[in-house]
Amino acid sequence: MKLSIVPLLVASILLGIVSLVVSADDIATLRNATAIDTQKEPEAIPKVNNDDVRRSRAYPMQPPLIPHKIDNYQVDLNANKCMSCHSRDRIEESQAPMVSVTHYMDRDGNFLAEISPRRYFCNQCHVVQHDAKELVSNQFVDMYQLMNQKQQESGNQPAESSD
Amino acid sequence: MKNTIKRIWHTLRRPSVHYSLGTLVIGGFVAGIIFWGGFNTALEVTNTEAFCTGCHEMRDNVFEELKTTIHYTNRSGVRATCPDCHVPHDWTDKIARKMQASKEVWGKIFGTINTREKFLAKRRELAEHEWARLKANDSLECRNCHNFEYMDYTAQSGRAAQQHSTNLASGEKTCIDCHKGIAHELPDMSGIEGW
User: Fold this and answer.
1) Is residue A161 part of a domain?
2) Which of B172, B177, B189 to substitute to test the interface with A, most A CBs within 10 Å?
3) Does residue A21 lie within any of the structural domains?
């Protein structure tokens, strides 16, 4: 059997060209263009936003961002600190928003008495925000903006930003 | 046996032949100071974090967990040590707590709490003792450092100010009602009020 070396050579040359074109400086990383043999000066650790102001959601199904710090909040087999404020029967005292009803549903849509096991570990979906500059700028476009654009293009009145 | 006791009793009751009253009074006074001082010094030694974490149970379990919390390192550099939260300042309360703690030391000597597993199995019970104590004394140990009178709501986070200005201010709740697990990992919380 004779393996041709030509395709391999072509492939590696192509790869080389690609890596030249996409120069390391264009990609934001934590090391950010620091030479491989030098140690980067570490960035200051940003603070967690703890201003208690609820953020708008980018789309209806988005898990809302956590507007408070959660340092040392225990969520394990023994205790769920989040539910000590966010559960149905705790919100009167804590004045926190209740976890929505989806959190009490199993995957077949049955309503459970307790938080559903698939929603137990809150931080799978909900995260805090840090007071930091983003490494990569966000180009997310809200759907209302898209709808407005469409409507302006077709010469109609712009849609309300909310209903 | 009975005779020995009788003889000692007689000696104690007989007026002193060899020593003057003055010597006896001053001697007794000095001995008293030494005993009392020694007792309190011993008490002080047992009242340090080094003593508390001298045995494995405390060092490998609760102390390890404390290290990740705000009471071990924080921006102001003020530390809370074990006795700050667990030993009352008041003398009678202190002695009472020490006697209780001796039981936990006993537990170590006789090997009832000599592994992480055994500690975890006991944890709910031990935690409940602490909650009951802090509930009964209105979280006195917390208040030794955190004085409600001097809390500035405007400097607190929204959630903190909201709770402190209502449920805490009215006296309805005390620190430990809302701040369980502030220094260590929690045991199984099922059935505990507020969880």
Assistant:
1) no
2) B189
3) no
Q: How many CB atoms lie within 10 A of CB B141?
A: 21
Counted domains in chain A: 1
Read off the tokens for B69: 């919390």
Mean residue pLDDT across chain B? 85
Q: Which domain holds residue A69?
A: 43-141
Q: Which of residues 82-111 of B touch A (CB under 8 A)?
A: none
For residue A130, list its beta bridge partners.
A48
Q: Is residue A50 part of a domain?
A: yes
pLDDT value of residue B7: 79
pLDDT in tens, A22-65: 554 566 677 777 888 988 888 888 999 999 999 999 999 999 99
Say yes or no: B20 contacts chain A, CB-CB below 8 A. no
ipTM at complex level: 0.76
**A107 contacts A47 by C-beta, under 8 angstroms:** no
**Structure token digits, residue B59:** 């060092």
